[in-house]
Design a protein that fits this description.
The structure is a single chain. By secondary structure, the chain is α/β, with parallel strands linked by helices. Helices cover 51% and strands 12% of the residues. It contains twelve helices and seven strands. Helix 6 links the parallel strand 6 (122-126) and strand 7. Helix 7 packs across helix 10 (235-245). The longest helix is centred in the middle third of the chain and has 28 residues, at 156-183. It is elongated.
Length: 293
């Protein structure tokens, strides 16, 4: 099939190449990268009705502006796909806005990262049945075998991807804590070796563990050249908020999110409070803060 790709970053470029390798024609637009089109208007001209335009751009204002621009360009019967990590509430609203113009809207959660080009991308598609059928050839080419599904109505794709990323937070934090316990232990443990053997036969083996092993191979077991500062892109926060809205306890995901917040503090004021209180009620010694340099 023929489709347009908006956004040629780490994910979009890999998806474009995988589609082309599978025989699809992909027209592209990215203002920062050499593309087949110099504007969204030109991209639409390069496609034939019913057009399919797939966005792989950051969630938020950029996606909002791009959706609005494309809805003014595309025609009834065309399909607009948001493959970024948008909030599912936004996706439901955008679907309604597209429907008013007769344009199909699909929210497709995409997982695979930089390895997706070779390994395939897991796709979680939300939307109506008709546009799903139109895009099915692309889904089949992008995903590994059994790696994509129509998970529900508009918004469901990004909802499932949100929860997927929340689970990812918890898994990553569990590995982080376990390896820190081993790193701080009395034993001189080879963490690269341990991550390596856990990849085979262990009940904690996973793709994340394989990536951790590769990190140890690249950076050394102490990860000395990596700062312990962990960002979050929003999906973990949204997962926690939805858990609260649904009265669902989600302690692992919640604490994993808070651990990321803690990683960004040069020194935790809460830790200072704890130290001060221990000094006051128990006479425990406190460490003096290093003077400013």
């Amino acid at each position: 099939m023929k489709l347009g790709m908006v956004g040629l970053g780490r994910m979009g470029s890999g998806m474009t190449e995988r589609l082309r390798r599978a025989g699809h024609t992909v027209q592209t637009y990215d203002p920062k990268i050499e593309s087949t089109a110099s504007s969204l208007q030109e991209l639409a001209v390069q496609l034939e009705p019913p057009r399919a335009v797939w966005m792989m751009i950051p969630a938020g204002e950029i996606t909002e502006n791009t959706v609005n621009e494309l809805l003014a360009i595309l025609e009834a019967g065309d399909v607009l796909v948001d493959g970024g990590n948008s909030n599912f509430h936004d996706s439901k609203r955008r679907n309604q806005k597209a429907a008013e113009r007769g344009i199909h809207f699909l929210d497709v959660g995409v997982s695979g990262g930089v390895w997706g080009l070779e390994e395939g991308f897991c796709l979680m598609a939300g939307g109506a049945e008709e546009p799903i059928r139109l895009l099915e050839p692309a889904f089949q080419s992008l995903a590994p075998e059994d790696g994509w599904a129509h998970v529900g109505p508009p918004g469901a794709g990004h909802f499932v991807k949100m929860v997927h990323n929340g689970i990812e937070y918890g898994l990553m934090q569990a590995y982080a804590e376990g390896f820190e316990i081993m790193h701080a232990s009395e034993f001189d443990l080879d963490l690269e070796q341990i991550a390596g053997i856990w990849r085979y036969g262990s009940v904690v083996r996973s793709w994340l563990l394989e990536l951790l092993h590769r990190s140890f191979e690249t950076h050394g077991a102490a990860l000395a050249d990596i700062a312990g500062y962990v960002e979050d892109s929003g999906e973990g926060r949204w997962s926690v908020l939805e858990a609260m809205n649904e009265d669902v306890p989600a302690p692992a995901i919640t604490l994993a999110l808070f651990a990321r917040f803690a990683s960004r503090q040069d020194e935790s004021f809460a830790a200072k409070i704890n130290a001060a209180l221990r000094e006051q009620f128990g006479g425990h010694a406190v460490k003096a803060e290093d003077p400013p340099r």
